[in-house]
Amino acid sequence: MPAVRAYVGLGSNLDDPERQITRALTELTKLPHTRFIKHSSLYLSAPLGPAGQPDYVNAVALLETALSAKELLKQLLEIEHRHGRIRTGKQWGPRTLDLDLLLYGDLRYADPSLTVPHPRLHERAFVLYPLAELDPELHIPGKGALQELFKHCPKQKLTPLPISL
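Above: the chain sequence. Below: its structure as tokens.
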């Protein structure tokens, strides 16, 4: 299988979120049949969902992989598990680590376990800004040009953070 460019969203708001993200970025460099290309800055953002949660630290990583989208998702879930992520089925709750497969080449796909592009990518400033940092000319399959998506994205305060890997 030829290599595909994949974008992975990272988020954490528990157990030293900056450390969780930097550790996860390091683990992404070790994925089989995958080349880690680069990552965005880290951003601090207010949580979506229930009030009373700590703020999130978010980033996006760009990979080139020969893994299928499903195989890559499996690897991402394994990294989450190693970071203490327990999936309860509840959306929007606090978490040690959340890894989302945002884009997988030009693939448009949906089944109960995976949807790419990520179905809410265009609604999240904490995803769009890091994506734009990595590739300002990016085109989102089925959604359009990244720069156009900013016009309709709900406003969210993002604070860039220094990164220490």
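Helices lie at 17-28, 69-82, 125-134, 146-149.
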